[in-house]
């Protein structure tokens, strides 16, 4: 009897993965009138995962994949819920996973919840000290330069791809953060950078979301879509109305994949399912040692063609028999390309 492959690289071998990553990395061609030959536009390629929930085994697998295919990735982004059920369910083994200190991180609700008889939230400074170790290697811009208050939000520019990634803290400092976000967006507009937003919570509740017809990365399990960060979408709308170029929101929290538009169809968003090998609130079977053990996305941003290309690594099939492998979105028109 043959044993099934169980390692993430055995489940995602180069002959399967490389043809897709090579096409995601391929530059778009832009013809400039009177200037031969055609110029080639850089792509931004991110590995995006969320809700690892203290699963050291699956974190090692994510980082093993990221290390092996590093030439095709610009960064790895974790959109919150690094801890387990609450603040106390966190192991220092997470920090010991090779490469994890270089992962771009933001906070989720479980990362700040503390239980000492009655619930209270960890402060931004406490959260920063625990989760943002290695931030000096991320290449991000923090509030007030060296971030003396230890705020848990930041942005990072990718000038060759013409993208600014802005990561928000959905748990702290909303008032100060709103002023900072407006400044970061005005600066991006002045520099001609398109904006990719990231925060843990989905940007809207189900009633406010418009679905993309035929999108397999949008779960039918709508009950797991709950919290929102309304002020962020309102400020982003101001940016769009000024002529700013918005790509989409990336997030997690729901434990399911969702994709659609909010703000009356002006803003795209994508949440990624739970990276922990767990089925709670999820919409798919997860089996250790099989392809479904893992769940994360590779995302390529093309600001010339205005495309978002998505490649799923790991769990592909939902219980509704939606097959999530690859997709391409036109972020300017907010539609699925088929």
Structure description:
This protein is of the alpha/beta class and 338 residues long. It is globular. The chain has a single domain, classed as 4-Layer Sandwich (Purple Acid Phosphatase, chain A, domain 2). Helix content is 21%, strand content 25%. It contains 7 helices and 18 strands. The longest helix is centred in the middle third of the chain and has 18 residues, at 174-191. β13 (258-262) and β14 (267-271) form a beta hairpin. The strands form 4 sheets. It has a 7-stranded mixed beta sheet with strand order 5-4-3-15-16-17-18, covered by helices on one side. Strands 8-9-10-12-14-13-11 form a 7-stranded mixed beta sheet, with helices on one face. The protein has helices at 8-11, 14-25, 56-68, 93-96, 124-131, 174-191, 230-241, and strands at residues 28-30, 39-41, 44-49, 75-79, 104-106, 113-116, 118-121, 154-158, 163-167, 194-198, 210-211, 246-251, 258-262, 267-271, 295-302, 307-314, 326-330, 335-337.
The CATH architecture term is 4-Layer Sandwich
Q: Gap between N and C termini, in Å?
A: 41 Å
The count of domains is: 1
- Spans where pLDDT lies below 50 across 5 or more residues: none
The top-level CATH class is Alpha Beta
Q: What is the CATH T-level topology?
A: Purple Acid Phosphatase, chain A, domain 2
Instruction: Going across the biggest sheet, name each strand in turn.
Output: 5-4-3-15-16-17-18
Structural class: alpha/beta
Largest sheet: 7 strands, mixed
Kindly state the mean pLDDT as a whole number? 93
Element string (H = helix, E = strand): HHEEEHEHEEEHEEHEEHEEEEEEE
The count of helical stretches stands at 7
Q: Which shape, going by the Cα principal axes? A: globular
Give me the count of strands.
18
What share of residues are in beta strands?
25-35%
Helix content: 10-25%
Please name the fourth-level CATH homologous superfamily: Metallo-dependent phosphatases
Rg for CA atoms: 19 Å
